[in-house]
Amino acid sequence: MKGLDRILLSRMGPIVAGIAVGVLAPLLVHLGNPGNMGICVACFERDIAGALGLHRAGVVQYLRPEIMGIILGAFLSAMAFGEYRPRSGSSPVVRFFLGMFAMIGALIFLGCPWRGYLRLAGGDWNALFGLAGLFVGIGIGIFFLWRGFSLGRSHPEERSSGLMMPLMALGLLALLLIAPKFGAEGSGPVFFSAKGPGSMYAPWVVSLIVGLSIGWLAQRSRFCTVGSVRDLFMLKDSHLFNGIIALLIAAVATNYALGLFKPGFAGQPVAHTDGLWNFLGMVLAGLSFTLAGGCPGRQLIMSGEGDGDAAVFVLGMVAGAGIAHNFSLASSPKGITPYAPGAWIVGMIFCLAIGFMMRQKLD
After folding, report:
1. Could you say which DSSP state residue 23 is in?
2. What ranges in the chain are assigned the alpha helix state H?
């Protein structure tokens, strides 16, 4: 265990975490998860929002154990190595809206950065447009960071305050296992899809173990799909980006081995072929993630460490999933909806406005 931890804390750490994601995600698809969606933080939070009744899109409702596992794995790792440090107070309301617009952008594309890479590794060439948009969105965020953008400092909190997200994860696991029905004649949540992507899932024990493992590995290695690109361009440091390369190589190899690599544009699972909006959706998501300080996976991990600001961002993403489906903003394999462009414009105006306004003076 000590030897593994030394590796995770070294420059090899992100590579190990990337390989783990690249291998385990296709395995989850092989065991029942939707195609090219072994792990997608945005999609899985969207499914959780649906299971809790925050939206009524019947094909995307399920309490995904991977999300709970990532939070709990990060929490256990932080506790074990003295990195559980509850803190908050860094523009929580702004972070909530950043999470909301990040989710809207991700659901226009149909995937978070993790799924963008996994879609590409599965042969979905539409992901190239999404990843290009992600890099552009991160680039815009870097423009603001160079000019002093900051959401302010967080402040230490009581140790008990950092337990909220781990306790929520345990509560969601309990709901998954008990599957209670509320409301008249059991018509209310918890909802589970009878068809569509929400009805496709690996055995919950396997999904939970995968989530716990990735949460632990990513917490120790600081694995982040957005921070890796930011550091590559701002600091000329490829330390984190090596994890992305490792993820792609491992995922392509695993997909080939399992017979899941199916190259092309058309007919890809839970994807559409509108290149422009694949690009633009991830511009909004990438910008939101960069301004908030990390990709959705990293936000989950930090929330497990006790970071209340990251927890607010995660909750903003869950709320954004409900808004996206209730207001017909989320894409489908048929493409975007008529209402998505308007929401995208509002999101970009919000992100650009706080990018220009929330700056500290540089000496």
Report:
1. H
2. 2-9, 13-30, 41-51, 65-80, 92-109, 113-121, 126-146, 164-178, 204-221, 227-234, 241-258, 275-292, 296-305, 308-326, 340-357
Find out whether 165 and 311 touch, Cβ atoms under 8 Å.
yes
- Locate 8 and state its tokens: 């995770």
Distance CA 1, CA 187 (A): 47
pLDDT for 204-218, tens place per residue? 999 999 999 999 999
Two tokens, residue 33: 């998860």
Question: Any idea which residue has 């990390």 for tokens?
Answer: 294
Q: How far from chain centre, in Å, is Cα 35?
A: 17
Q: Which of 265, 207, 187, 225 minimizes the C-alpha distance to 39?
A: 207
Kindly report, residue by residue over 182-210, the tens digit of the pLDDT: 877 667 889 999 999 999 999 999 999 99
Contact 142, 234 (CB under 8 A): yes
**CA 182 → CA 52, 59, 185, 191, distances in Å?**
11, 20, 8, 10
